[in-house]
Amino acid sequence: MERLVHKEVSGGVATITLDSPRNRNALSVRLLGDLEDRLNWALAEEGVRVIVLTGTGPVFCAGADLKEQRVEPGTAHEAPVTASFPEIMSMIWNSPKPVICRLNGTARAGGLGLVAACDFAIAPDSASFAFTEVRLGVVPAMISVTVLRRLDPRAAAEYLMTGETFDAARAQEIGLLTRAVPAGELDATVAHYADMLLRGGPEALALTKQLVRQVPALTVEEGMRQMAELSAQRFTSAEGQEGIAAFMEKRPPAWVPSPEKTAGPE
To answer: From the candidates 87, 133, 222, 239, which is the catalytic residue?
Structure first.
């Protein structure tokens, strides 16, 4: 059976592509299974330093596959979308490797949970967004775990409760997107972020991702204590010493991938 999610790696960057345009890359059981498999591959692959999540067609992801959510009245049923979607969002959120969401277009509902789970989100300025769940009589429950950690609280109430469509400029303003750019600049912008991330030490990036989220919850005193310990550990670590040596010797550090390391799409 043909895969609904493809993978490709080039120069340390793994691109994972949702490829089910017939249903606007909806989160079907098949697509979720393929996506989980591809993410596991990217996280385990030693040569992968940065992950880019994108899609085919005019829509990045339309959310849950509603055809699969239909049930006979009065029957016990577990919504198929819950099968692996929480694990997938957690996998992206907790990934020690930076994850960039390259939105190829519009996103709705559950698709925005994926967007919010990623460390960076770049979209064409023509894209639109909406949390449509309440208009279907359902709740943006699972995706709220990642979305509410990104959005301004007033904006979260506005859009999750009204289901109103908003544009890419507004999505950037409220924290859903990192950047909204003209469509012709999308690939260059994603490549720019990927290149910047490849220059960072893998361990340092993973730890920095953690502290961005954890330090604000600490008291100033506890934060200073923990971060002083971490700083000392990193300066004396093998990775830190390699970075310092590379800087002094005016050469790339050992962790920067060679551009010739490329594998075709699969």
So the answer is: 133
Q: Which residue has the tokens 């300066």?
A: 235
Half-sphere exposure in the Cβ direction for 42 (13 Å, CA): 33
68 backbone dihedrals φ, ψ, rounded to 5°: -80, -10
Residue 82 CB neighbours (<10 A): 12
Return the structure tokens found at 162. Answer: 């009204």
Answer yes or no: are the C-beta atoms of 12 and 49 closer than 8 Å.
yes
Is residue 9 within 8 A of residue 45, CB to CB? The reply is yes
Residue 133 annotated as catalytic: yes
Residue type, 264: G
Q: Residues near 193 by Cβ (< 8 Å), separated by ≥ 6? A: 100, 120, 122, 178
Q: pLDDT per position in the chain (266 positions), as tens?
A: 789 999 999 999 999 999 999 999 999 999 999 999 999 999 999 999 999 999 999 999 999 998 888 776 665 556 666 679 999 999 999 999 999 999 999 999 999 999 999 999 999 999 999 999 999 999 999 999 999 999 999 999 999 999 999 999 999 999 999 999 999 999 999 999 999 999 999 999 999 999 999 999 999 999 999 999 999 999 999 999 999 999 999 999 999 987 655 566 77
Sign of CA dihedral 9, 58, 160, 165: positive
Closest listed residue to residue 114, CA positions, set 62, 189, 186: 62
